[in-house]
Design goal:
The complex is a heterodimer of chains A (265) and B (165).
Chain A (H helix, E strand, L loop, with lengths): L6 H9 L5 H9 L1 H18 L10 H8 L3 H8 L10 H4 L1 H19 L7 H4 L13 H6 L16 H8 L17 H16 L10 H24 L4 H28 L1
Helix pairs in contact in A: 1-3, 2-3, 7-10, 7-11, 7-12, 12-13
Chain B lengths: L1 H19 L2 H17 L10 H20 L2 H8 L8 H4 L3 H10 L2 H12 L4 H8 L3 H19 L3 H8 L2
Helix pairs in contact in B: 1-2, 1-3, 1-7, 2-3, 7-9, 8-9
Classes of the chains: A mainly alpha (265), B mainly alpha (165).
């Protein structure tokens, strides 16, 4: 092979050296082509090692400005000043129905009965004051839990479930929400607070893998429930916001679990 | 939502920026991808991490938009080949020069090179993403690498080869 190899051939040799025997033979005897081959191989390796780029500084603001439900989201963010007398809430029967279904789902998320693990026997940490560390029985008696409630998974009446999930004394010690906030929304956010309070932090994942896995299952249940609710009310700001928070939390925990598994190996 | 954005913004921006070859276009594509993601979040099934789902969505969004832009850009890009690296050995490890050369590739070459060498997709996956045969992806990749080599050291490689004949 008197001619030097084309760069395209050298590129093919990088990926599939066995597929080009004649070119490979030429490479063995040609210093110039071997040099070019090495340069191209280094170029290919350098390309795969390019660093991630920094996104634009105002990237989030620009995206948020383009979101179609921004106004609703802003109203939702201002919980204490929401007009519950006759605005979007009372006019949105479907959204209300979705929220009730969603509240039931939130209950389900906490009521998913993970196998109760004895702290002393399994080496898991002591039960926190959160809602369901000791399972449904204690959850029912907790301040922000449904006193004597029927587990959501066993109920078919969505509104009854929502009512049963509501705080019994009309207040919630774990979150600071306006007193006139509709009950389903109060329940919804207090559930997330309770769930957060009892989930393991990323640094605890390795020490308490069972709790991390259980927490992941609860978050999955919440995601499923909120997704079902969104099918009825796709633009509902509260449910969307809630779903985003839960997905972010699930993703963070998933990453922590992944890192922990790598360290374990 | 802001938390989700902050966690994955760099990865999303990087892949669309590499595919686009242009800052302003990349910013636009990244915004489109995020807005699509928030609208479709209820379709996220949770069987992969959110980051994986978002990466796929961003890649598809960018490729669809870039495909619709047509061949006009390819002509413009061809005309923009200007500066080069004086020393290839330094250039291949210089991220800035590599990134600049990548931006100057014709869009069709750049997409295949980014998807294969930077993002690690197979030719079968690239074929599905770009709606071409795997063999076409392979052929485009080798042309793209050859072009990158020329961009990093125009004339240099030929001269070196000539001197050693």
């Amino acid at each position: 092979m008197p001619e030097h190899l084309e760069h395209e051939t050298l590129s093919a040799l990088i990926d599939e050296p066995e597929a080009w025997p004649a070119a490979r033979d030429h490479l063995r005897g040609c210093t110039a082509c071997r040099r070019e081959f090495n340069v191209m191989r280094r170029m290919r390796m350098a390309l795969s090692a390019l660093d991630d780029l920094d996104p634009p500084e105002a990237g989030w603001e620009a995206i948020e400005a383009r979101l179609p439900v921004r106004e609703e989201r802003e109203r939702a963010a201002g919980w204490p000043t929401l007009d519950f007398g006759g605005g979007w809430l009372s006019g949105s029967v479907r959204a209300a129905a979705a929220v009730i279904v969603f509240a039931a789902g939130v209950g389900l998320g906490l009521w998913v009965a993970p196998p109760t693990v004895s702290g002393a026997a399994s080496g898991t940490r002591a039960a926190s004051p959160g809602l369901a560390d000791a399972g449904p029985a204690q959850a029912a008696a907790s301040p922000d839990g449904p006193a004597g409630a029927t587990p959501a998974s066993e109920t078919t009446d969505g509104s009854a479930v929502a009512a049963s999930l509501a705080p019994t004394d009309g207040s919630d010690s774990s979150v600071s929400l306006p007193p006139d906030l509709p009950r389903p929304y109060r329940v919804l956010y207090s559930r997330l607070q309770a769930l957060r309070a009892r989930g393991p932090s990323p640094s605890e994942v390795l020490q308490h893998p069972e709790e991390a896995a259980q927490h992941l299952a609860r978050l999955d249940a919440l995601i499923r429930a909120s997704r079902e609710a969104l099918q009825d009310a796709p633009a509902d700001p509260a449910i969307n916001d809630f779903l985003f928070q839960v997905v972010a939390e699930r993703d963070a925990l998933d990453r922590a679990l992944h890192v922990a598994s790598l360290e374990y190996r | 939502m802001g938390a989700l954005y902050r966690a994955h913004a760099a990865r999303v921006y990087t892949v669309v920026r590499r595919l686009a070859g242009d800052d302003a276009l990349a910013e636009d594509l990244a915004q489109d991808a995020w807005i699509r993601a928030f609208r479709k979040l209820h379709l996220f099934r949770g069987d992969a991490s959110f980051g994986t789902w978002m990466y796929r969505l961003a890649t598809n969004t960018a490729l669809n938009r870039l495909r619709r832009r047509g061949r006009r850009d390819e002509v413009e890009q061809e005309a923009e080949l200007t500066s080069s690296a004086a020393d290839l050995d330094d250039a291949v490890i210089n991220q800035r020069l590599l990134a600049e050369a990548l931006d100057r590739l014709p869009p069709g070459y750049r997409r295949v090179l980014v998807l294969h060498d930077l993002e690690g997709h197979t030719h079968e996956e690239i074929g599905e993403l770009l709606d071409v045969a795997p063999g076409t992806s392979k052929s485009q990749l080798h042309k793209a690498r050859a072009r990158m080599r020329e961009l990093l050291d125009p004339g240099g490689s030929a001269a070196a080869a000539q001197s050693e004949v």
